[in-house]
Design a protein that fits this description.
There is one protein chain. By secondary structure, the protein is α+β, with helices and mostly antiparallel strands. 46% of the residues lie in helices and 15% in strands. The chain folds into two domains: 11-201, BirA Bifunctional Protein, domain 2; 253-350, no CATH class. It has helices spanning 24-32, 65-74, 97-115, 170-192, 204-209, 224-243, 253-284, 292-313, 329-350, and strands spanning 11-17, 35-38, 43-46, 53-59, 82-90, 119-124, 136-142, 144-146, 152-155. Strand 8 and strand 9 form a beta hairpin. Helix 3 runs antiparallel to helix 4 (170-192), helix 7 (253-284) packs across helix 9 (329-350) and helix 8 (292-313) runs antiparallel to helix 9 (329-350). Residues 150-164, 171-180 have a biased composition (Basic and acidic residues). Keywords: Conjugation, Plasmid. Residues 150-180 are annotated as: Disordered. Residues 22-232 form the MobA/MobL protein domain.
Length: 351
């Protein structure tokens, strides 16, 4: 049976660099929703009013967050130094607060043991006006190794290594290891509470190679800064009109097109995911027996058909291909999948 992919797959890592005007003290205060003084710049960073903090902790460091990140800044002398690394993680909403905290703590300890760095983690609740499922974690780690006495040593350059040895760079492999470790820990927790869905750290291309997803999954286009501003202006006007009983303004054409495209895309992705399970049942009940080669061809054709369906749904006005213009959903893709095998068998019988 096909494995159901969990939606909490977000795993983003960014660097905190002075060349971009960023500070380890600032990002530490942000994730912990605290007030910290940056000794290098003389600036106070106060994020207490933002709220949303559920829990926070530091591993590999005995003091508070302000002392940790000021020490990280003091360990660097170059004006373009990278002083910290920031990771944002989506947390499975099915898990309790205790288990979410345990996930973040365990992963932070794993990073400490793997790279010898100090890590501060924090768990944030969803924003009031956002998706109520958006529980997420923040991790900030030092870029230098920290010993048991709080002294900063050499740089932990595993993630920055771009040298290749007949394949992917070491930094790319390290990123893969981090994602795999986080997915393994999350899936272990989901398994304990009986959740079937699993977090898959692999890219969409690699899933397609394993015949577990479309080769290309189209994404909704980003509107950009200007159109986003127009969208917020329209939403504000619509909200104001609704509160005062006035006629709401007409939705801009670009916003109508964007929402229609997104709805088509989400509907197509959902149908394609259900198709894999349906094909499993179809192969087991009433379908002619298939040898290994025919089964591989069947699955490959389904992948290609699903790719076309998802890519086509991302267009403003989707147009179904000729073989499916009178069909929708899994029946149409099933026909596309079986037709090459039926033709192959017909040619074989005629010989």
């Amino acid at each position: 049976m096909a494995v159901i992919s969990h939606s909490a797959t977000h795993h983003k890592v960014e660097t905190i660099s002075r060349s971009r005007g960023r500070s380890a003290v600032q990002i530490g205060a942000y994730i912990s929703r605290s007030r910290s003084y940056d000794e290098r710049t003389g600036i106070w960073h106060d994020h207490r009013a933002k709220g949303g903090i559920e829990a926070s902790e530091r591993v590999g460091w005995q003091g508070d967050g302000q002392s940790l990140w000021n020490a990280a800044e003091a360990a660097e002398v170059r004006r373009n130094s990278i002083t910290a690394r920031h990771t944002i993680l989506a947390l499975p909403v099915e898990l309790s607060e205790v288990r979410q905290n345990a996930l973040l703590r365990g992963y932070s300890l794993w990073l400490r043991d793997r790279y010898g760095v100090a890590v501060e983690w924090a768990r944030h609740a969803p924003e009031t006006e956002g998706d109520p499922r958006n529980y997420h974690g923040h991790l900030v780690e030092t870029t230098r190794r920290v010993d048991g006495k709080g002294r900063f040593g050499e740089k932990a350059r595993e993630m920055d290594d771009r040298t290749r040895n007949g394949g992917r760079s070491r930094g790319s492999r390290e990123m893969e290891s981090r994602r795999a470790e986080w997915a393994r820990r999350c899936n272990a927790e989901l398994d304990k509470i009986g959740v079937i869905a699993r977090i898959d750290h692999r890219s969409l291309e690699r899933r397609a190679e394993a015949l577990e997803g479309p080769k290309v999954a189209a994404k909704p286009r980003h509107m950009g800064r200007a159109l986003t501003a127009l969208k917020r202006r329209y939403e504000g006007s619509a909200s104001h009109a609704s509160q005062n009983g006035a006629t709401p303004p007409r939705m801009p054409a670009f916003l109508v097109a964007s929402r229609k495209r997104k709805e088509n895309l989400m509907r197509s992705r959902s149908s394609w995911s259900r198709l894999l399970g349906e094909v499993d049942d179809w192969l087991e009940s009433g379908s002619p027996s298939l040898d290994a080669g025919e089964l591989e061809e069947l699955l490959g054709t389904i992948i290609r058909a699903g790719t076309r369906t998802v890519r086509n749904a991302a267009k403003l006005n989707p147009v179904l291909s000729r073989p499916t213009h009178r069909m929708t959903g899994s029946d149409a893709i099933r026909l596309l999948a079986t037709r090459p095998i039926q033709k192959k068998r017909t040619r074989h019988r005629g010989r």
